[in-house]
Specification:
Layout (H helix, E strand, L loop, with lengths): L4 E6 L13 H18 L5 E4 L2 E4 L2 E8 L8 E11 L3 E10 L2 E11 L1 E2 L7 E2 L4 H8 L4
Antiparallel strand pairs: 1-5, 2-3, 3-8, 4-7, 5-6, 6-7, 8-9
The structure holds ligand LTTK3YTO.
Length: 139
């Protein structure tokens, strides 16, 4: 089993609701931001030029199960693994804990796409240099 990429986020006041707990929509933003940090940690970018193509990763599926609440100023530990590396798609899992307690578990699937101004977004095979780096984190 691959070691996950790990990062942390401090739960911000503006991410909580009137019950004082992190709002469900905020979990998706934390997953997105953690995924972008993961991509950058590999020396990649969420939007890059590869072989003359502008490559981007629009999302086609996202889900999250909420197990326990987390509150303002608590630290959220996020562990990311690649659960599927398809021909064009990448699926990630996100295990979110706080002080060792299970908080939430999410999944996101994005598709490698060529995005050029004025043109339709087109899915393309994941370039070898990206695939190679993601492979290390394949669950
Ligand atoms: C993205 C699309 C253009 C793909 O359409 P296409 O017809 O080419 O897709 P296929 O059916 O051939 O599938 C390709 C590939 O994807 C897998 N897949 C497709 N749908 C799903 C799904 N629902 N769940 C799981 N997997 C799915 C399929 O199995 C194939 O996998 P292989 O690996 O086997 O090849 C088209 O779907 C489209 O345009 N969708 C709309 C996209 C969109 O608007 N998304 C919401 C906004 S995107 C966004 O918010 C966003 C956030 C970020 O953080 C980004 C970060 C970095 C870059 C971009 C970001 C971004 O856009």
């Amino acid at each position: 089993m691959a070691e996950p990429f790990r990062t942390q986020r401090l739960v911000e006041f503006h991410d909580t609701d009137m019950a004082g707990i992190m709002h469900f929509a905020s979990f998706f933003q934390y997953m997105e931001s953690a995924e972008h940090e993961f991509i950058r940690s590999l020396g990649l970018s969420v939007h890059s030029q590869i072989a003359g193509k502008t490559i981007s990763f629009p999302r086609v599926a996202a889900s999250c199960d909420f197990k326990s609440p987390v509150r303002c100023e608590e630290v959220l530990d996020i562990a990311i693994l690649v659960t599927r590396l398809g021909s064009k798609s990448i699926s990630y899992s996100f295990e979110m804990t706080s002080a060792g307690k299970e908080i939430a578990a999410g999944n996101i699937t994005c598709v490698c796409c060529q995005v050029e101004p004025g043109e339709d977004i087109t899915s393309v095979p994941i370039p070898a240099e990206i695939r190679e780096k993601l492979q290390t984190y394949l669950a």
